[in-house]
Amino acid sequence: MTSSQPSKMRKILWFVVAIAVASKQMEKGIKKTVQAGATVSLPCELETPGGTVQWLQNGQPVVLEAITANRRLWNVTRNGIAALTIQDVATSDEGLWECGKVRDDGSVGSKVEILELTVLNPPVEPYIELEDKRLPQGAIITLQEWQLLFIKCVAENSSLPVRRIQWFLETTNVSSNGELFTEYLPGNETYRSWSLLSLNITRAFNKKELVSFVFHEAWIQPVTASVSLNVLYGPTFSISREPGFGIPIVEGMAASLKCDVEANPPSDPLWQKDQGPLPFDVSSGGYLNFTSISRKDAGWYKCTTKHLFGFFTSFGYFLNVRSKPIYIYSVKIEATSAGNFPFLVAVLKCFQPIS
Ligand SMILES: *[C@@H]1O[C@H](CO)[C@@H](O)[C@H](O)[C@H]1NC(C)=O
Ligand SMILES: *[C@@H]1O[C@H](CO)[C@@H](O)[C@H](O)[C@H]1NC(C)=O
Ligand SMILES: *[C@@H]1O[C@H](CO)[C@@H](O)[C@H](O)[C@H]1NC(C)=O
Ligand SMILES: *[C@@H]1O[C@H](CO)[C@@H](O)[C@H](O)[C@H]1NC(C)=O
Ligand SMILES: *[C@@H]1O[C@H](CO)[C@@H](O)[C@H](O)[C@H]1NC(C)=O
Ligand SMILES: *[C@@H]1O[C@H](CO)[C@@H](O)[C@H](O)[C@H]1NC(C)=O
Q: Where is the Ig-like domain (predicted)?
């Protein structure tokens, strides 16, 4: 009972000294910050000829386990220093690393601090956000022409903020329409960075891919996030004719008018004559075919279409059909009596067609 008092005192004293030594070591401790995925070497400078060393992470002996065995490798350098090499460093490798000599009883004595490791995480896979909704990679977004699009590319959960996000519309650099923002999330001790892109949508953007490139020190190449654009726009008409414009169309000829409607969603052309529906069946595909055109077919034609955005009509086009040329023959018959046979001479006179 009496002998336990000084023993307790000794224990307390030893504990205080140990703390003092430990805090002294913390002071001089080397701090090392690496990007996740890097390789770190932890050499144990202890002199342990013939002995065994033990590495400790945050005071816990490091044991070989299946999860880390292929990343944590033991080496002995030529000058006899044992080193622990950690490949593909992850957050789980963070903390204070020490090594100590293994005593005969298996306990670890005389620890030496190697370094305090901090691992910087790159952002998790960036993604595109539209109206506060996360979009899957390659999603198709439907927009209207002349709409002002606000779209975000978000890179979060990084130890350091992302400093550069670029935007490309197919091969066109549209980064100048983007603005980079960063916020620190104290709860997660991470950064959330995003680029807000604003684009005035035109039909030229239809079916194009909008790609954001996120740059980070930990990445050899930028990581991308993308969406495809589906731009809705109203119809424009183009009308062509067979035979071509400029060649007169004459009764009885074969002729055709063609109407092409350019719109998204696609819209079917429909011909109208003189403000009303066509008095005859129309062939499909925008064609209005006349196998043998007549004077009655002349008139004002318009191409129309029923589109998502409403009913649209083209400019009127006047189809002129000329009458068949009328030939007036005047025949003059002369009888001659040269030789033994009388000759008949016929003179034909031809008049220009009347249009
Ligand atoms: C330790 O060994 C591994 C392979 O076993 C090697 O990749 C690494 O460079 C070595 N490290 C040192 C410090 O020798
Ligand atoms: C987009 O551009 C067009 C043509 O330059 C313009 O008329 C329209 O007002 C713009 N839209 C917006 C929302 O700024
Ligand atoms: C964010 O990073 C932390 C480590 O800093 C990690 O534990 C966590 O799983 C990450 N979250 C996501 C969503 O990846
Ligand atoms: C794209 O444009 C931005 C600025 O608008 C510029 O900083 C960046 O270097 C350009 N990227 C490429 C690949 O040209
Ligand atoms: C931590 O980050 C995740 C996204 O990675 C987020 O959903 C969550 O709200 C964050 N938590 C805090 C406390 O900031
Ligand atoms: C109408 O005429 C065009 C050529 O002018 C032809 O390609 C098309 O097949 C014709 N359509 C019909 C239904 O005959």
A: 6-99, 235-307
